[in-house]
From TrEMBL, chains A, B, C, D:
It comes from the Bacteria. This is MazG nucleotide pyrophosphohydrolase domain-containing protein. Keywords: Hydrolase. GO terms for molecular function: nucleoside triphosphate diphosphatase activity. The keyword Hydrolase applies. Signal peptide: none annotated. Pfam families: MazG-like (PF12643). GO terms for biological process: nucleoside triphosphate catabolic process.
Length: 110, 110, 110, 110
C-alpha cells in the first residue's frame, strides 16, 4: 500500500538533507549529535505531559495551543530520527517492520 | 513519490496497534506513557554513542553487532513515535512537512 | 568530613519540600512524575552541549551566559533528584557511596 | 547543619575522580559526554516507572528488587551529576540553593 496524498519518508529525508546542506549544518550532524538531538526533542515532547494525569494526557489535543505544541515536537523528533537514519544509511521503516516480526515471536499474544 | 517496495507508515501503525491490542497493552498506552517510552528508547540509542568520539560515531555501522543494535533502537524509537501519533490522531509525516515549511522561512539559507 | 560553610543535602531537601508544600504542588510530585521531570531537566542540560565539539564543551563555563545556564540546569536536575529521593525515602549520598563500593569490585583498576 | 554520619558530596566527588583516574577514563569525561551519560541514567530511572500508574509508582520501594533498582539508578544519576560538576568546577549544592532563592521570588506561594 502506498500513500498517494501526502509527504513520504524519502521525500522528507531529502528535504531535511537539502535544508541542512543549504545552511552548512552538515559538520554538526554526526550520528552522535543527531541521536543526542533526538533525545532532547523527545524530552521536549515529554515535558508537555510531565505533570498531567493519564486522563489529562489523553485530552491534550483538545485545545489548539496544546495540539500545535505536540505536533511541533513530533515533527522535531521525526526530523532528527530521519536525519540520523540518513547519515547512517538506515531504512527506519524496514528496521521497524523487522522488529515487529521479531516481537511477534518474542511476545506471543495471550 | 511513493515507496512501492517496502513497509509504509500507515501499515506499520496498523501492525503496532494490532500487536498492542492482541496483548491487552492498550490501557498502558496513554499519550503520556508513550511519550515517556519514546524518550527512554531515544536514550538507549544515545547510550550506544555516549563515550564515542564524533569520528568513532560515524563508523558505528561498520561492525555487525553495533549496526544491529543501532537499527534495533531506531525501530523502538519509531515504534513509540508511531503509537503516540496513532493514539492522538497525529499524521507525523504531515506534521514534519509543515515544520520544514515553517523552518524554511525561519532560518533562511546562507 | 563535613561542609561547614555551605548548603547541605538535607537542608536543601527540606527547603524543596517546604517550597512544594507552600504551593500545593505535592499531588503532582509522584515518584513517576519526579523521575520524568528529572529526565527532562537532564535533557535541558544536554541541549546546551548538543552541537558542541568535545573541546568546545570543555570551555562552556568561560562566558557568563553559558555558565549561568549550565549552573541553572544543574540546579534543576539536583532539585528533582532530591525531591524524588525525598518522596521515596532514599538517601542519595548513601546510595552512591554503596554503588562506588560495588563498582570498585566490579571494575578493578588497570 | 552538617551530616556527621554519612558520606558527603565532596568526599563522593573525590572518590569518583579517583575511580575514573585509576581506570584511565578521564579522556572520556568531557562535560558533553558526562551530561549525555547523566541523561541516559535519568532515562534508566524513568524506565522503571514507564508503565506504572501514579499509584503504583508510589509503592515502588515496597519490594526489595524494585527498591534496589531505584537506588542503583539514583546512584548512577548522582554519580554523573557530581562528575559533571567536578570537571566544570560547579558547586551543585550552592547552585541549587541559589536557584531556590530565585524561585521563591519567581513563584510566590499561594
Amino acid at each position: 500500500m502506498t500513500r498517494d496524498d501526502g509527504p513520504d519518508v524519502e521525500g522528507l529525508q531529502r528535504r531535511l538533507a537539502d535544508f541542512a546542506a543549504a545552511r552548512g549544518w552538515e559538520p554538526y550532524h554526526t550520528p552522535k549529535n543527531l541521536a543526542v538531538a533526538l533525545s532532547v526533542e523527545a524530552a521536549e515532547l515529554v515535558e508537555i505531559f510531565q505533570w498531567l494525569t493519564p486522563e489529562e494526557s489523553a485530552r491534550v489535543m483538545e485545545e489548539p495551543e496544546g495540539a500545535h505544541r505536540v505536533r511541533d515536537e513530533v515533527a522535531d523528533v521525526l526530523a532528527y530520527l530521519l536525519q540520523f537514519c540518513e547519515v547512517l544509511g538506515i531504512d527506519a521503516l524496514q528496521a521497524l517492520s523487522e522488529k515487529i516480526d521479531r516481537n511477534e515471536i518474542r511476545f506471543p499474544p495471550k
